[in-house]
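Lab meeting, item 3. Inverse folding demo.
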């Protein structure tokens, strides 16, 4: 009970209400004491008026009047004359005098607390203004025994009433919190537990229904989270199935390309000059295709294979990429340019970096062709102090905002209609394998620039 939200709320509410009642009790008991003393003054004044009306009262009647007033003597001051009107023997000496004529609230509260803290009876003098303006002042002497007993009785009744009110209020708040907060929260927890049993089932996604704004916001956020997770799990399942299919296709395609590789040996023996010139390029293309199939099969078992580092001429590799792209460009008005120092030697995996640059150039070419306008693709590279910096830029239309949100995520960063969105994801993984970083440096109406940074200390 005390560990639950509603139980703790019940306990705290009871404590806070009791605290509020205690704060009310202190001035209340002070006011009760003041009223008690004023009542004694009024009764004493009435008794003294009886004596003033008949100056020949018997001692027995005087004693009875004082007893009914609850005092031992009464002093009136009228017309600047102080007169002892009624008197009787006092059991002790006067210890304190209290003037109620202009008493401040904090003084009354302090006197009341002092009286409650003193169990022994005392003789006190009380001074106040006469009622109905019958004189200048009225003064009585009285015992505090009955005063303290009346204060204790009143305080006990106030505390009991406060306890009843606090408990009743706490129970009502407990029921309200239980119905309006705890039950909806338990409902959300139940939805979360049910969803955890089968997160792929869209029917288990919570449907917001809370009327409390904060709970409704929590349900909306949970619904969005569950929807995204369910979609991600479904996509993961589809990717797993696709990975199996790609692995099977890559296995068969590798066998076919291996057979084609054998036929290229005879093509290289041809005396035709054109065949001799094109045969090495065909061999290189088939070799890369076989390597790609083998890498795909390896990807099904683990991540992209670790790069095999070696030194190679980057300018020559860029030229190979451009030669392959010129065949794909055909009659399109797209120019290719490179700004790479002829002697720039990189240390990396030439096959993986070829794939990275080829993917970026291919994406740029497809983006420009889609516009139907002429364009330019450029590859530049330089050697900085601690890294090689490579940039692939184009004059295409730029990337749409949606593509930028998931730029390097498989199957989500696609730009071209019908594209898979794998190109940039592959490039990013290949660059990371070299300890480098792939970044989108800029993308607007003037074109797009991708930057690759390969640290020398990670590859040298």
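The presenter then showed the designed sequence:
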């Amino acid at each position: 009970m005390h560990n639950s939200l509603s139980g703790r709320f019940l306990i705290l509410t009871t404590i806070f209400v009791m605290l509020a009642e205690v704060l009310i009790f202190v001035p209340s008991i002070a006011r009760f004491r003041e009223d008690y003393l004023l009542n004694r003054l009024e009764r004493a004044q009435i008794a003294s008026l009886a004596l003033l009306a008949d100056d020949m009262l018997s001692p027995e009647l005087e004693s009875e009047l004082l007893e009914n007033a609850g005092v031992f003597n009464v002093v009136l001051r009228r017309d600047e004359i102080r007169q002892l009107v009624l008197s009787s023997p006092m059991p002790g000496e006067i210890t304190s005098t209290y003037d109620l004529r202009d008493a401040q609230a904090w003084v009354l509260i302090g006197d009341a607390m002092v009286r409650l803290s003193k169990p022994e009876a005392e003789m006190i003098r009380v001074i106040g203004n006469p009622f109905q303006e019958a004189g200048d002042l009225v003064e009585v002497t009285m015992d505090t025994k009955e005063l303290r007993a009346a204060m204790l009785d009143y305080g006990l009744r106030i505390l009991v009433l406060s306890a009843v009110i606090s408990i009743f209020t706490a129970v009502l708040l407990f029921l309200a919190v239980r119905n309006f907060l705890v039950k909806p929260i338990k409902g959300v927890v139940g939805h979360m537990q049910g969803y955890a049993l089968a997160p792929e089932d869209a029917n288990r996604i919570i449907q917001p229904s809370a009327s409390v704004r904060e709970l409704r916001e929590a349900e909306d956020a949970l619904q969005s989270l569950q929807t995204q997770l369910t979609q991600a799990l479904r996509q993961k399942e589809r990717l797993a199935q696709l990975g199996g299919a790609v692995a099977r296709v890559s296995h068969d395609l590798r066998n076919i390309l291996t057979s084609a590789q054998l036929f290229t040996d005879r093509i290289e023996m041809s005396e035709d000059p054109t065949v001799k010139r094109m045969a090495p390029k065909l061999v290189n293309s088939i070799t890369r295709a076989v390597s790609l199939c083998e890498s795909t099969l390896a990807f099904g078992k683990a991540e992209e294979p670790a790069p095999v580092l070696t030194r190679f001429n980057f300018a020559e590799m860029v030229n190979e990429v451009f030669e392959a792209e010129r065949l794909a460009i055909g009659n399109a008005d797209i120019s290719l340019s490179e700004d790479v120092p002829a002697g720039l030697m990189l240390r990396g995996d030439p096959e993986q970096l070829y794939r990275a640059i080829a993917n970026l150039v291919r994406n740029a070419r497809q983006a420009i062709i889609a516009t139907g306008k002429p364009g330019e693709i450029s590859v530049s590279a330089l050697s900085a102090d601690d890294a090689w910096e490579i940039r692939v830029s184009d004059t295409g239309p730029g990337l749409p905002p949606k593509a930028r949100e998931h730029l390097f995520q498989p199957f989500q960063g696609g730009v071209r209609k019908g594209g898979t969105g794998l190109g940039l994801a592959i490039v990013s993984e290949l660059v990371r394998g070299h300890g480098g970083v792939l970044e989108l440096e800029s993308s607007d109406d003037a074109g797009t620039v991708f930057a690759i940074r390969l640290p020398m200390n990670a590859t040298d």
